[in-house]
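I hope you will forgive my troubling you with a question about protein structure. You will find the record immediately after this paragraph.
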Amino acid sequence: MADDQSSAARRPVVPATGGEQGLQTEREPREVEKVRKAGPLQTDHGNTTIAETVVQKIAGIAAREVPGVYAMGSAGRRVFSSLSERIPGSQTNVSGGVAVEKGERQTAIDLTIVVEYDVSIVEVSQMIRRNVIAAVEDATGLEVIEVNIDVTDVHLPEDDHKDANVSGHAALE
């Protein structure tokens, strides 16, 4: 077998004929096109681009739908959002607590959440990942390669009573 390989290596390389060269050049552009059009957003009729804010909103809504998620974002972000929601005509910020890194075909999502007391953080995280991946991939056609979840706080039932008392005192003054 070693003799077969060495004799093949010693044979002179015969250049391709004109017809063979034509076939090779016809194949090359098709192979390049296959590489270029590798996702549902890149087609023969044009490309679709999706802004990061679109992915952020879809992921934020999908994460909020999961039972056990009390709020999204850091404490400062939640305070800012609650103040801005009180302004007449303002819109709810559904992308708060969501950071996205997006390429042409893939995206990675980071979520910052507050969970309710007495829920399994592991189960809530798994449900969030499933929901966010399904929502983003179905809506955008982008492949979600990871969903990282940062749990920054646990909402306690007593916190609702403290908030009600504070707002009640403010109304009396």
Remarks:
- Residues 166-173 have pLDDT under 50 and may be disordered.
- The chain is about 50% helix and 20% strand.
